[in-house]
Amino acid sequence: MAVRFCSSKVAPGKQSVASERDRERLSPGGKKLNHHKRIMGDPITSFSEVRALIFDLDGTLIDSKLDLALSVNATLAELGRDPLPHDQIFSYVGQGAPALIARALGSDASEQDCLIGLEFFIKYYSAHKLDNTVLYPGVRETLDALKGMPMAVYTNKPVRVSRSIIQELGVASHFRHVYGGNSFERKKPDPMGVESILREFGAAPEQVMIVGDSEVDVQTARNAGTWVCGVTYGFGSHLLAEYPPDLLVDNLTELLPHLSGPPVRAPR
Q1: Assigned superfamily of 4-62+134-258
Q2: Which portions of the chain are predicted below pLDDT 50?
Q3: I want to staple 22 with a disulfide (CB 3.0 to 4.6 A). Which of 7, 37, 184, 265 is the partner?
Q4: Domain 65-128: which topology?
Q5: Is position 56 annotated as part of the catalytic site?
Q6: What is the CA radius of gyration of the chain?
Q7: 41 contacts 253 by C-beta, under 8 angstroms
Q8: Which of 217, 219, 205, 214 lies closest to 232, judged by CA?
Q9: Model confidence pLDDT, tens digit, residues 27-44
Q10: How many CA atoms lie less than 13 Å away from 19 in the CB half-sphere?
Q11: What local confidence, expressed as pLDDT, does residue 268 receive?
Q12: First-residue to last-residue Cα distance in the chain
């Protein structure tokens, strides 16, 4: 599968939008990077500055679509509402459980309905979170190959269930930190969580790459000043043309040849 190089980073705090003027922009070190696709046989471009990685969870590391959709529809049934098509529910994923339930209930739902629905959803999903959820192909192999590199998971999903999933899928030991949507005062795409992880890693923004499947991950990286790799197989990948990452891969193993630098050392 081919790897695509996309537009380089915009200034922190600005959203990236695909356009002709995006084709040539400055990297963290001030070097110009061209917007292009990698052609098979071309030399691998190395993000040699990258020393640490921050992964999104749903749609990036884990395929949780079915369990999330079933849990949302169980919540709707509990509230006496009709189920939604799974594809519609998938489009609501990425901004945290409160936003997921609010969007599923619709604009006519009261604040009380949203609170009751959220409470039921969290309990139901916590009990069924691994009925169908699995790691995406290539994830375990990639994490094994990256052993020794500082890595974290940062998701808008609640932190307790996120840590439980990672633990039960057998990959928790790969990550120094796991943070969720309720770990910080503000969720992604606000840079607060990433900036905290950078301090814990002792890394500069240009030494870190966020790996995710949606425009939320790209916006988070732009706001925090880090690199970003998008994956094409996740929930929000259909929006990555509008919010182009620095690198786009079809399988997480394709990221490995682009990482060549030694890992950062966390401050003591």
Answers
A1: HAD superfamily/HAD-like (3.40.50.1000)
A2: 7-43
A3: 7
A4: DNA polymerase; domain 1 (1.10.150)
A5: yes
A6: 18
A7: no
A8: 214
A9: 444 433 433 333 333 445
A10: 5
A11: 53
A12: 41
